[in-house]
Each structure stands twice: as C-alpha cells, then as structure tokens.
Write a structure and sequence with these properties.
The complex is a heterotrimer of chains A (112), B (394) and C (229). Chain A has strands at residues 6-9, 15-16, 31-34, 39-48, 60-67, 72-77, 87-98, 101-110. With 112 residues, chain A is an all-beta fold. Chain A has 2 domains: 1-35; 36-110, OB fold (Dihydrolipoamide Acetyltransferase, E2P) (Beta Barrel), CATH 2.40.50. Chain B has a domain at 5-119 and 218-235: Thiolase/Chalcone synthase (Peroxisomal Thiolase, Chain A, domain 1). Chain C starts with a helix and ends in a 7-residue tail after the last helix. The chains are: A mainly beta (112), B alpha/beta (394), C alpha+beta (229). Chains in contact: A-B, B-C. Chain A binds chain B through residues 4, 16-18, 24, 43-55, 60, 62-64, 72-76, 84, 95-96, 98, 103, 105-106, and chain B through 119-122, 124-125, 128, 132, 134-136, 138-142, 144-145, 148-150, 152-153, 156, 204-210, 252-257, 261. Strand 4 (39-48) of chain A pairs antiparallel with strand 5 of chain B, so a sheet runs across the interface.
Chain lengths: 112, 394, 229
C-alpha cells in the first residue's frame, strides 16, 4: 500500500486517522476504510534541527496536512519554504529505519 | 471522602546525578518527606512511585517494589504509576485517593527519573515514545517538534512572540537562582538569548520556532510527599496543608486529531474539575506551579487553567504579573525550565514547592501570604493532564 | 640552550597568519574574548588543565592529559605547526582549543577543553578554531575525532560531518572531516563573534590569563558542587 488508511464512520460519517476502535463522535464501531485525497493543505509545521537518535539527517521538516477529503495526518514536508495553508501533494517513502527495517510514511511536496 | 493532608515533603536537587541510581534518588527523597513529616517508626500503608521510563533509561522496572525494600517499608503496598510527564501528578492522585477513600492512612508518594544515563538524542527518542507509533513516532517527531507545531499556531492565533517565550525563560531562570534545588542556576538575558544578532548561536533552533532556551533541561532527580489524615497530621504536629481539589482529563493522542490544536481541552477540564472539587476559584489562587516543559506551555496553561482569558497570558507575563511579587506568581520555583524536569519527579516537585509556599518555608522565593496554591502536570503533549488545588489551613 | 643542537630537534615552522581576536556575547550577556595565544601563555594554561587529570566524567581526564602534552610539546618546540586559541571572560580562562596543521591544506583538530559549562563555551571555541583553519589559514579540510559523547553530539551531529577512511593522528575512532563547503554552509548557524574587540575588553584579556582555583575548576567541570540540603 502506498498511503495511509483512514476511517470513515458508517453511522455519522466522521473521518478519522489514525485508527480508533470507537468513533470519536458517535461511538460507532463500523468504519469504511478510505484513502486520503491526493492533495491537501499545510495546517502547521516545524523544522526539527535536533532529531532523535536513529535519524541521521541534519534537519527535517514535519507538518500536519489536511487532505481535501478531511483526513488529517503528520508527514515529512519537502518544501524549501513552508507556509501555513500551502497546497501539497502526498507521496510515500521510507521515513525511518526501525530495527534495521525501512518504515514507510507520508511525505508531501508543493503541488506547484 | 475525607480530607487529605500533605504532612511531609522533600526533594533532592535536580541536576545531572551520575553517582546516584534511580532507586537511590527515590529513597533519598522519600526519606526527606518521611522525616519532614516526623514519621518516626510509624508504618506506611502504601507507596506510589511516579516514573515514566525507568525500563528505557535505566534498564530497570518495578521500581516501586524496589523502593519499599530500600526504605524498609515492607509490607506496604507499592505501585509504579506511569503517565508520561504527568507520572508524578498521577502518583500523587493515586496516593490522594488511597487516603481520601479511607483505604490507607499514611501514603508515601515519590516521583523520580534518571534521564542522564543516556546521551541526549537517545533521551529525545525515549521521550518521543509517548507519541502515536504509526501516525507520529515513525516520522521522527519529538516532543519539541510537537511544541514547535503548537507554538506556530499559537503565535498565529494570539500574537504570542518569541520575545514572550523568552520572558518566560528569563523569569523562571531568575527564580531558579533563588531555589537551591533548581538544576539551572544561571541568569540569562533577552540580548544573549534572542535579540543579539548572533543570539541564535547561543540558542539554536531545536524545532522551529522552538529554540534551546524555550526548552527545559534534561535532569535527574526525585521529590516526595507524605500524605495522611488530618488527625494523624496533628499527632505528627505538622502544618495542615490539604489537597483541596484534584482534576484529570484526557484528549486525543495525536495533535492532528484535535479539532483546534491550540485548544488545550484537557488542561481546561482538569483545572475546572480541581477548582470545582475544592470550592476555590482561579482568582483565589495565590501561587501556581505550571508545566513549562516548553516556554509556550506556561503561557498557554495560564490561560486554559482559568487565570487569564485566552490570548491574554502573554500580556500578563509581559506586565510582570506572574513574577514572584506579582498578582499571580507562576513558577516561583523556577518551573521546569530552571528547576529541571526529571520527568516522573516533576508532578511531585510542583506539590512540594506549593507546600513550602503555603507553609511560608520557601525562603527567598516566598510568595507573601500564600494560602491557596495550584499545580498543573501536563502528560503527553496535553493528552493527559492533572491539576491540583492545595489549601493551607494553618 | 645549545641552539646548534636545537636546530636538529626543532620542527620547521609553517608561516601562519595570526587569528584576529573576537568577542562573543553569551546567553548571560557576558562577553567572551576568543584570542590566539603564543607559547609564552602555555605555562599558565598547563596550571588550568592539571585539575582535569583525575576527572573521568565526560572524558575530561584523557582530554586534559593529551591537551597538556600537546601544549607542552608545542611550548618546547617539539610539535610542528600547532595553534592554540583561548576563551576568556573578564580575563578568566574558560576554555582552550588547539589544532595542528598537518599540511598547509589539512588541519588536524586536536582538543577542546571547556572549563565553564552551560554556556556553549566548547561549541563556540570549536567553531573558532574551525574559523581559523578555513577563513584565515585557507585550509581545505579539518579532520576531527571525538573522545567524549558530548563532542560527538556537538560536532558530528550538529555539523553533519563526513566520515573519512584512515586514521586521525590521535589514533581514535575513524575520523570525520569538516570540509570548506560544510563549514561555510553551517557558519551562520554555528559561528559567532564580533570584531574588532573593544579596546578595554582586549586589555583585560591580554593583561593576564586568570586561572580559577583547582576547587573552582573542578566545581565548574563537574557542575554545581553537590548540594546537601
């Protein structure tokens, strides 16, 4: 799979990511698995210059993106000059090595 | 529920303590609280230890059981309580419930953490383990990174500036100089940390817009309180400082799932519960110990706890209202910024400071005439918060 | 001294443009003067270094002993092309750094000893010796090896140094290199200092290198004296 799986409550339609066993709004327990849209907008971000042990990059930009279909997720932001509200398109790539294995996650680039 | 008195308090200086093991530090602080309570040979019914990550930092678990052994308190009940950076607060809450319910008469609560056993970036990683494993941790998110994303939005929404953040650090480090237990004993200036053209070399970016001097240090240390009934406290001839209110509340795990990430709902609800239980209002509070793991949090918590309207906390700070001599002294101890933040110890240390303040034993940092105190212990990144209201009856 | 014999025992000297002193404003607003010292300062520096010999914490012992040897060797004209910079606050010595020019183009970073802690003194002085190598001595690359985890974090991680094959002359772990390119890329973030140094401050610094007492030095290195309260 090349993106995250988000969950839409079958009872009330709330879109959630990550997974919850009960809907955050109506306590429903049945969900439709949905994919986030291709694009979204940047809600907030930070430029991390002190990364945790195990990540060898000098710096990394992380941000929360709201996809067009309502899914919200954290991901690596690959924009030279990030700005709140900027339009981004999602990618999927190794974001960390854990226990010797590459772990994949969301990355975002400016749409234009 | 019957009233619960904090009959004894104690802590050891927070700093880098290479020579002391975690359990040794817990024992040292525990003994201080027991002695401060004049406990003598009286048995303790239960011991609660607040500690976040002894398994990861120190390769040791079940430290409450170990502590009972070191202090020869057997057969006391013992539990280790974990709630991230609010482990200390949760431990106090559990101790409070044990006495308030009538289940126990004398309870020792000790909070401690030994973080300096690992190198900085590893400590950062261990602390990051509290984030969501798939939606946050894998991206290399750190607590400063969450604070950075939060701060950016807070600045955008309320006009908080880096100067405001630096005022928190300056105030708390100045208070730290008055606190012999504080990790950081250094006066910093706006020039040296922010306004000098090269200040960014002294205070480099940790997770923009959070800089080095916006973050609390990594510390080792422990603090303890001895909880009991009013009758026993009188037998022990201790000043009567009670836990008048406790409140706890949770929020979503991930920052992104909060409908408004700048809205610290758990802080608001936990504080309301503590105030409501105590019958005391925010305006009656004489001194507060808030959780400034990052300078932005002191400002944000001062608003969400009910002391200032949203968006006004920074103005109150800039006007000097939260200095020791001000209208509402916040973090006379130096807060997490200067006192330090051995994670599991903090929630207990906040209570220790309040008790000293309410007894009139806070020395050079005494808030005059303090009768009602408030503390807030912020777990995760605001997804599990505990608030206390303390009242002095003496 | 038999100068005829010395001619055989002394190494040749590469001409080095002197390092212009600078003043750094610290987080406390305190001013640290960073300046190059000549051989005549070595005896007093050795006094300051001695207390570190017994301090195993943070590898002060091996850094101190080796720095002592390097400075003494330079003082006695037996070590080639070494330079030494010191940091002083109101004349008080707070740190020492040294490097050897292995060749005109290659610097061999030797040691960084911070006596005052909590103010990024070591980081500032390390940056200063790199500034000297790249901006004044026009070197291409400086080899660095870390003996302490603090050094590793400050340099290898904060600068993003490149690994190299072969050995550093200190014979420690595989060396890393700071290249001209990396230095200039990181400069604005990591190198501070203003020139020229105001006359009064310079006079205080040059008048005397004040060395704290052994007790004070140990307290500064080990952190606040263990408080029994």
């Amino acid at each position: 799979m090349n993106t995250i799986t988000a969950y839409k409550c079958k009872k009330c339609g709330l879109v959630m990511y990550p997974h919850h066993f009960r809907c955050l709004k109506c306590n429903g327990r049945e969900f439709e698995e949905i994919k986030p849209s291709a694009n979204g907008k940047l809600l907030t971000y930070t430029i991390i210059e002190q990364l945790p042990w195990g990540i060898d990059e000098r710096e990394r930009v992380l941000g929360v993106v709201e996809f067009d279909n309502g899914v919200k997720a954290l991901g690596v932001i690959k924009a030279k000059d990030p700005k709140l509200g900027m339009k981004l398109k999602a990618g999927w790539e190794p974001v960390r090595v854990i226990g010797g294995e590459k772990v994949y996650g969301l990355s975002f680039q400016p749409t234009k | 529920m019957r009233p619960v008195v904090i009959a004894g308090v104690g802590m050891i200086p927070f700093e880098r303590r290479d020579e002391d093991s975690l359990v040794d530090m817990l024992a040292m602080a525990g003994l201080k609280a027991m002695d401060d309570a004049n406990l003598g040979d009286r048995p303790v019914d239960a011991v609660y230890v607040g500690n976040m990550a002894s398994g990861l930092f120190n390769h040791q678990v079940s430290v409450a059981s170990a502590l009972v052994d070191r202090l020869s308190l057997m057969p006391a009940a013992a539990d280790r309580i974990e709630n991230g950076p609010a482990s200390g607060g949760s431990a106090v809450k559990n101790g409070f419930l044990a006495v308030a319910s009538g289940y126990c008469d004398i309870v020792l609560v000790v909070g401690g953490e030994k973080m300096r056993e690992v190198i900085g970036p590893k400590a950062t990683d261990i602390v990051a383990c509290m984030t969501h494993p798939n939606a946050e941790y894998i991206y290399g998110v750190t607590l400063p990174a969450l604070a950075g994303m939060f701060t950016r939005l807070y600045m955008e929404k309320y006009g908080v500036t880096r100067e405001h953040l630096t005022l928190v650090a300056i105030k708390n480090q100045e208070n730290g100089l008055l606190n012999p237990y504080a990790h950081i004993q250094m006066k910093i200036t706006m020039e040296g940390v922010l306004t000098h053209p090269q200040a960014h070399v002294n205070s480099p970016v940790v997770a923009d817009p959070i800089h080095l001097y916006d973050c609390c240090p990594v510390s080792d240390g422990a603090a303890a309180v001895l909880l009991t009934t009013e009758d026993i406290a009188n037998e022990l001839k201790r000043p009567i400082v009670t836990i008048a209110g406790v409140g706890q509340a949770t929020d979503t795990h991930t920052l992104q799932e909060r409908s408004d990430p700048t809205d610290l709902k758990a802080v608001t609800i936990a504080s309301q519960k503590a105030f409501s239980m105590s019958g005391i209002k925010p305006k009656d509070i004489d001194v507060a110990e808030l959780h400034d793991a990052f300078t932005i949090l002191e400002i944000a918590e001062s608003e969400h706890a009910g002391f200032f309207p949203k968006g006004q906390g920074a103005n109150a700070l800039a006007a000097g209202e939260t200095q020791i001599g001000g209208k509402l002294p916040i973090n006379p101890s130096g807060g997490l910024k200067a006192r330090g933040h051995p994670v599991g110890a903090t929630g207990v240390a906040q209570i220790v400071e309040l008790v000293w303040q309410l007894r009139g034993e806070a020395g050079k940092r005494q808030v005059k005439g303090a009768v009602n105190g408030f503390s807030l212990n912020f777990g995760g990144f605001g997804n599990n918060v505990i608030a206390f209201v303390l009242r002095s009856k003496s | 001294m038999d100068m005829e014999l010395e001619a055989y025992l002394r190494p040749p000297e590469m001409p080095m443009v002197p390092y212009p002193p600078k003043v750094i404003t610290l987080a406390t607003s305190g001013k640290m003067i960073v300046r190059q010292v000549d051989r005549d300062a070595v005896p007093i520096l050795l006094e300051a270094i001695k207390p570190t010999f017994e301090v195993a914490r943070d590898y002060y012992d091996i850094v101190g002993v080796r720095l002592y040897a390097e400075l003494l060797g330079w003082y006695r004209y037996r070590v080639r092309d070494e330079f030494c910079l010191v940091g002083q606050i109101d004349g008080l010595l707070v740190g020492i750094v040294n490097t050897r020019c292995y060749s005109p183009k290659l610097g061999m970073s030797l040691h960084t000893l911070a006596i005052e802690r909590g103010l990024r003194i070591g980081a500032h002085l390390f940056a200063a010796k790199m500034e000297y190598s790249f901006e004044y001595l026009k070197q291409e690359e400086v080899l660095i090896t870390a003996e302490s985890p603090i050094g590793f974090r400050r340099w290898m991680i904060e600068y993003g140094l490149e690994k190299r094959d072969g050995q550093h002359e200190l014979g420690g772990a595989t060396p890393y290199a700071l290249t001209r390119e990396l230095y200039f890329r990181n400069k604005s973030r990591l190198v501070a200092g203003e020139r020229p140094v105001p006359l009064e401050l310079m006079q205080v610094a040059e008048r005397e290198i004040i060395v704290a007492s052994e007790e004070d030095i140990l307290e500064k290195i080990l952190g606040v004296k263990r408080r029994e309260i």
